[in-house]
Design brief:
Aminopeptidase, 7-stranded mixed beta sheet, 7 strands
């Protein structure tokens, strides 16, 4: 996971971090996600992690507790190989099964494959943040995409489960909880 994330920091526009994360920081983040029972999936090929996807709280305030934001990172050797098409639906299903009602993603405006993937998985563009990032010598836009989960906003949410959500096993074989 560290190798995958580092590649995207150094070569991609999806994350505006300037320096790669250290292993201890990735472990800390993963521990927090697992403690909160937030979906964190990996795609592997012959025991090698080739992609991962996770969801985190959209915002910390209680009013936003039914909404998550997500990220997907694919190993550079497996870009455009359909890994995202397996991870994203599994992540959507895991978030819905855990009782969340909205899922949001921020995507670089020039990342056409990711924009198309999200559209194919039921996401809709709900915002465009123009020139909010500066990386590799130029400004970049961030596209905000959203999709409803389960009943979405058609009914009020039920009682929030004590201690968070329940864990679920994702559908596709390639996507496994990490």
């Amino acid at each position: 996971m560290l190798e995958i994330y580092s590649y995207h920091i150094q070569h991609g526009l999806g994350d505006f971090k300037a320096e790669p994360l250290h292993l201890r920081e990735i472990k800390r983040r993963r521990k927090v996600m697992l403690k909160r029972r937030l979906p964190h999936l990996v795609a592997d090929h012959d025991g090698r992690v080739i992609g991962y996807a996770f969801a985190a709280p959209f915002r910390k305030r209680p009013a936003y507790r039914y909404t998550l934001k997500h990220s997907i990172y694919i190993h550079s050797d497996y870009l455009h190989a359909g890994i995202g098409r397996q991870l994203l639906p599994a992540l959507v299903d895991a978030c819905a099964a855990a009782g969340y009602l909205q899922l949001i993603g921020y995507i670089d405006g020039t990342n056409e494959p990711s924009l198309k993937l999200h559209e194919a998985c039921g996401f809709h563009q709900v915002g465009l943040l123009r020139s909010v990032g500066f990386k590799f010598g130029h400004w970049t836009d961030s596209v905000m995409m959203q999709r409803s989960l389960g009943p979405g906003d058609s009914v009020p949410p039920g009682a929030w489960p004590a201690g968070g959500q329940t864990e679920t096993e994702p559908g596709p074989v390639v996507a496994k909880p990490s």
